[in-house]
Amino acid sequence: MDTTWIAARPAVVAAAVAEPSSWRRWWPTLQLEVKELRGHKGVRWNVRSGRRARMTGTMELYLHPADDGVQVYYFLRLDGRTRPIPVRRRARLAHAHRVRTKRAMWTLANRLDPSRIERVRGQDCR
After folding, report:
1. Are 31 and 48 in contact (CB under 8 A)?
2. CB 52: neighbour CB atoms within 10 A?
3. What distance in Å separates the CA atoms of residue 41 and residue 44, rounded to the nearest whole number?
4. Where are the chain's structural domains?
5. Nearest to 46 by CA among 19, 64, 23, 12
6. Model-level pTM?
7. Which pLDDT tens digits describe the chain residue by residue (126 residues)?
8. CATH number for the 2-118 domain, one of 3.30.530.20, 3.10.310.40, 3.40.50.720, 3.30.830.10?
9. Per DSSP, what are the bridge partners of residue 30?
10. Is there a contact between 57 and 47 (Cβ–Cβ < 8 Å)?
């Protein structure tokens, strides 16, 4: 699970996360099947991952209006199809997917509100 705030109107963020062409770029190792397109609330998928789809589960981007933007909540659950995923491997996978999704959401935020970055860069953050 992870969360990212994006300074953009909810409808704009919802349209961006509902775009299938972005999904392959954001999660190239996951095979996604839309479970539910939720409009302004986001998207839910059934997921297969790993060699020969040895892991299956669900993923969601849940959108919640917050201040002058949208809070994007990311949830991913993967289970081994034939046996449990070892604890250390599960931790590595969880971390890798959180980092990939965080980068994807930051890239989306930069595209939807590029001036926000300039405002942050221009401030002294010491």
Report:
1. yes
2. 7
3. 10
4. 2-118
5. 23
6. 0.81
7. 889 999 999 999 999 999 999 999 999 989 999 999 999 999 999 999 866 667 889 999 999 999 889 999 999 998 887 788 888 988 888 899 899 999 999 999 988 987 776 545 544 444
8. 3.30.530.20
9. 49
10. yes
